[in-house]
Design a protein that fits this description.
8-stranded parallel β-barrel, 10 helices, alpha/beta, 268 residues
Amino acid sequence: MQQTHPHHLQPVTGARHRLLDTLIRTKQLGKKAYAVLLDPDKVEQDSFIELLTRTTQYHVDFFLVGGSLITNYAHRQLVDAIRQHTQTPTILFPGNCLHIEPGADGILLLSLISGRNPEFLIGQHVIAAPLLKNSGLEILPTGYMLVDSGAQTTVSYISNTTPLPYDKPSVAACTAMAGEMLGLKLIYLDAGSGARRPVSPQMIAAVRQAVDVPILVGGGINTIEKAHAALQAGADLIVVGNAIEQDPDFLPELAAVVHSYNQAPVQA
């Protein structure tokens, strides 16, 4: 059965910061959202249009396009196809300063605040700044926090950084707090693509208590129980990629979970 698109996630038409405004308003209303992560190296072209049709049916709130290591630069083709077949906003999830596609709606300008590699704290941003300034993309300044998932991930290897310890929620909370104080508008907790375990509910809850900005959580959310746990702990938006690629039937189940939160009355 097709669901009605939650009113709170309708984009702010013509607003300069419509994506950020939408995410902030979602949090303020106590609602939830979800995004489908599309890695250009993993998208199967033969089934991609079918996937887009299904995401429209189940009202995906955002597409994230990108990855840590891209060997097949197909960003433009993916963004063009999304625009042609859906009205879902597309946000770039860049691995470095080369992953900029002006046809998207926005870009997560990721500062890797969980690590101490200056290249991913500010270095890549300096190189990308002139291009981003003229790109027309909405810039979403994001504190990006890698969390130990039980195995080394591509992003931790490429970024040459150590993830936050899985069982140290207080470290994550202080890191997120510092990011917010520095002016970052979003916090993204990520266990990495194909994570053995997702970010723990305890860590999400600790970060939720520490900051007021919207929280994105991704990596390892491959069951409905894990999706519930992340949302209940305080995630405002969950990001799912591999689970949908491996099991298309996971998409309607995930949509139903998010929709259930948005149907519930907001607590005063």
